[in-house]
Queue: 2 jobs
Job 1
Amino acid sequence: MLQVAVLGATGSIGASALDVIARHPDRLRATVLAAGQNVDALVALCVQHRPRHAVIAAADGYIALKRGLANAGLDTVAHTGEDALDALVAGDTCDTVVAAIVGAAGLRSTLAAARTGKRLLLANKESLVLAGELLMRTAREAGATIVPVDSEHNAIFQCLPDSHAHAGLARLILTASGGPFRGRSRESLRDVTPEQAAAHPKWSMGLKISVDSATLMNKGLEVIEAHHLFDVGADRIDVLVHPQSLVHSLVEFVDGSTLAQLGLPDMRTALSVGFTWPERIASGVGGLDLLAQGGRLDFEAPDVGAFPCLRLAYDALRAGGTAPAVLNAANEVAVSAFLQRRMGFLAIPAVVEQTLSALPPVSAASLDVLGDADAQARRIAEQAVQHLVT
Ligand SMILES: NC(=O)C1=CN([C@@H]2O[C@H](COP(=O)(O)OP(=O)(O)OC[C@H]3O[C@@H](n4cnc5c(N)ncnc54)[C@H](OP(=O)(O)O)[C@@H]3O)[C@@H](O)[C@H]2O)C=CC1
Ligand SMILES: CC(=O)[C@@H](O)[C@H](O)COP(=O)(O)O
Ligand SMILES: [Mn+2]
């Protein structure tokens, strides 16, 4: 029986992970559920899944969580704070961790899982963008198994089963849906609303990643994520827009073969792979009927003129050091300001670019250096937001 900690349980990935877990009561059990601030949703999940521990990040939610669990007649133990979460992730109530907290807030618990050699189903791409070398080294040294569950990286993972395949690798091709604004000019995006930006054409996801998909920053973060996961340089990672979102990514080999993984756009497939790979279990996702899906697979080049975030991410990866951490932090500030209607959609790449220019990269030697870069970038990006709106 795999004992699973689901971090970000109240989110979109959390829901998909818990759906797969509930389908396999003989093999999978949710023992730890963690969320940010949504106490009611966390208690409801505890009623359904009966974990041993529930963690709410926001300290002011602790009493309500404790009371909610008691009122529901559960013996689930309530916790709050990052130290408590780290201890649970590292402890023996779980052997498998679904890392699905959104943003840099997920780094600490992701690292705690890696440090203690757990099976890590990694959705929280920001932790790899921020501290990829450190996270991969930590996992390697501790013997942790990282299974990427970001759909593109999960596809590549399935196409690269062993070191022989890796040795013959020519390039990775990440597919992108193009987001809700595919085909539009840069100027036409000036007044788009958060609702329009968050309306992803193919995937049902949290707000932050949906906006990232609309700017193509999601694909930029994924290029950096792929670099760390598969140890491939920026020059051998390409992006291809594929509006049907049925081909989840491709791997080209030196002999001219290209392998791809296809399936309906539903994260339960990638999560199922993560739980039991190399064995496959039912995920609840049906098979892919290509004719029913329209009978065609289209591909086009990304438009980096209209969507400069993709170029900024490649630049940050090539610059190295703390640049990806700065890119990530500035993007988190900018997306949040856009969602709060403090600035327009086109200001997102502007804030990221200004922050990157203000903070030249230094060697990302330690977690402290990366933490400082993240904090400085957030301050500078916030100033840029204020400057843009005044
Ligand atoms: N959704 C998807 O299909 C995909 C998502 N991903 C990645 O997975 C991650 C999660 O995405 P998604 O599920 O869409 O996001 P959601 O916004 O739907 O969910 C985010 C989750 O993180 C929790 N959370 C936020 N801040 C904290 C914190 N400080 N401590 C603990 N928990 C916190 C939220 O809790 P609360 O509800 O209480 O606020 C919620 O459970 C992101 O990194 C995203 O890029 C990758 C590929 C696909
Ligand atoms: C489901 C998933 O993995 C997302 O990251 C998805 O890829 C977003 O779609 P875009 O291709 O539009 O960024
Ligand atoms: Mn993805």
Job 2
Amino acid sequence: MSTEDLRVEDLSVSDDLEMDEVPQLVEPLAKVPLTVLTGYLGAGKSTLLDYILKEQHGRRIAVIMNEFGDTTDIESKAISVQSDEAMVEEWLELNNGCLCCSVRDTGLLAIINLMEKKGRFDQIMLETTGLADPAPIIESFWNEPALNLEVGLDAVVAVVDAAGIEKQLQEPRPDGSYNEAQRQVATADVILLNKVDLVQPEDLDRIEAALRSINSTALIHRTTRSSIDLSLILDLNIYASPSIPIRPETLAPFVQPDDKAAQCAGCQSGDSSHSHTHSTSSSSAHANDISSLTIPLPVLPSVENGSAFYRVVSRLIWDSKLPSTSTSSSDEPLSLDLLRTKGFLRTQDGQSYILQGVRDIFDISPVPPATVAAEEREVKPKLVLIGRGIKGREGEIARRFEEGLRMALEEDEREGGADGEGDKDMAE
Ligand SMILES: Nc1nc2c(ncn2[C@@H]2O[C@H](COP(=O)(O)OP(=O)(O)OP(=O)(O)O)[C@@H](O)[C@H]2O)c(=O)[nH]1
């Protein structure tokens, strides 16, 4: 254990004590889970935060908003100005233990400053503005080592407006790039399909299918007024670190076969009378050609940096390239624009891993074996790609990945196990 893992015991349990009175217990502290809350303008994010801030849920939650308006209930109450703060502008402490604050930008070091002043929290919720792309926030989090020691990215939760999301997904950007709604849906780990009271029940399956066609692995919950059991959105450990038990929800998307998840409920129930509006080219189900692809994986010798799998997957995520194979002689880029990559991996020593990727950053974390035994047995190793350039080329991409991985594994085997020897062909 490194000394960086050793901290003074959680101060939040003894708010009345001065620093020098705090018992010097040197135990490793769990990272404070951080939930990134995203969603289009008006989807229901503030409604969710309002709910969290008012509920008695027994947790000390810091809700951090990076803008204040003047219309919602929460925002109009948050008027305690701390002018000496560099980044944290305002905060409001509530009697249920929650703390609401505003940061001038998405600079996440504000969170550490906040915890230094106000003690640790059980959970942090960081709300992005309605037009924000969550990916840079996640990337800056992964790239900020100081923050990473104290705070662990828990999950990306997107609130979508059931009545508006189909149109929002279709809105073109002048430069042809992803629009915000597409980015938010594609990046989410959990989607609250909110405002279901405004939609005909028979339309909900189609709308959900549209979301699934973009992001087949997100957990989708239908809500009205963003009302949800908080255990379904908080403390999920989706971006697990080895020391934190993984909740079954983390693995649920991997347990459910993707091809079923992507189908509408009517298809799954065998009801031949339902309409297939989601399969027409004009439907939002395939908005702007963003889609998901699941590639089954073998049990691997290793997933360490330098291993066959690491080499192939990092080339795919970083360079959009797959190795040349017998059927594709060139090493040409695949013209993929990946927004999100997820994987459930297993190695020959019985260890399981979760791969999480947002844009060109990815991380592979071991799954603690004891925590998910039952669910884990159900999960087949797989890699899920979410982005543009997949649709219509699923077979080609999967074949090139599988063949490239097989060749890389054979190469390592010939060389007597090159795993862990570094970035073998990364310099190419
Ligand atoms: N009918 C209905 N209205 C809702 C629901 N959820 C939220 N609203 C209303 O929708 C409006 C927008 O909700 P907000 O929670 O402010 O949305 P937001 O995502 O925070 O919006 P921005 O701050 O603009 O990004 C408010 O008037 C809410 O009362 C719902 O489930 N059904």
